[in-house]
Amino acid sequence: MKTFSKLPQVHEEYTSVTCPVCGSRECKTHWDCGTYSFQRCTCCKHIYQNPRPRPQDLLDRYDEEYKNYEVENSQNFFQLMIEGLNDVGFLDLEKHIQESLPPLESPKFLDVGCATGVLVRYMYDRGWDSMGLEVCVPAAEYAQANRGVRVQVGTLESQEWQWGTYDLIHSSHVIEHVPDPNEYLSLQHKLLKPGGYIIVTTPNTKSFQAAFMGASWRSAIADHVHLFSRTHLGELLVRAGFEPKEWKTWGGIPLGMAPKGVKRSADWLAKRLGLGDVMIFLAKKPKKSDA
Ligand SMILES: [Zn+2]
User: Fold this and answer.
1) Separation of 40 CA from ligand 1 center, angstroms?
2) Which of 132, 192, 207, 218 would give a disulfide with 151, using CB separation of 3.0 to 4.6 Å?
């Protein structure tokens, strides 16, 4: 499956940024992708685009074309999200969250970057008070009209929130698109109740595929402004106040690039070694009593 991405547009303006992990300005070209490039921080080795488009230019890339891509692939993406949730023990987590609430109170769920709302609907059907947040207006409208779910349009920064009210916040393939991942995680920390959980899925730079493909890696696309390793994303989660609980990876060889038997073995090995193409973190906002 091809990853959706727009190439840099002529009207976009690029700005220089510092490394979000260590704050350094020093970096070297890591992957030259032609019209854009990924830099590697000289100090901590985080991989990110620098210079990169302004935040508004990045947001403008999510249009009708993006919505159509998400609609076309929604069942496939849904299956992958369910597999990821299973990997971090979602069913047990859901039971634990439900049991910790007063009777008749529904647990609150937010899907950040919910696209066509397929997971928002799934959680609603499981009894969650479920909402999505989406920057792409056509995708949000599709979710509201076709899945009957609540979706707010915009970014975490642009909304009026009731802080400290969510039990679980999920985002799949979003943090790598976000200009300021520290702010992104801090806001989710503020949104969660003490004892609430965050689930973050994103490409894994320490994967087989990243190592073999380099600048042609399917995640080295123009829309990804950061690419994370377990160490760097783990560090940002801890800095935002989270306690990482689970970490898994999946995906050895992309679909269609090898015979089924070879792909199955590579996928098994990648998961076992933590070298899968995509990683998922489950982390907790500790309660004061946890300290
Ligand atoms: Zn750095």
Assistant:
1) 8
2) 132
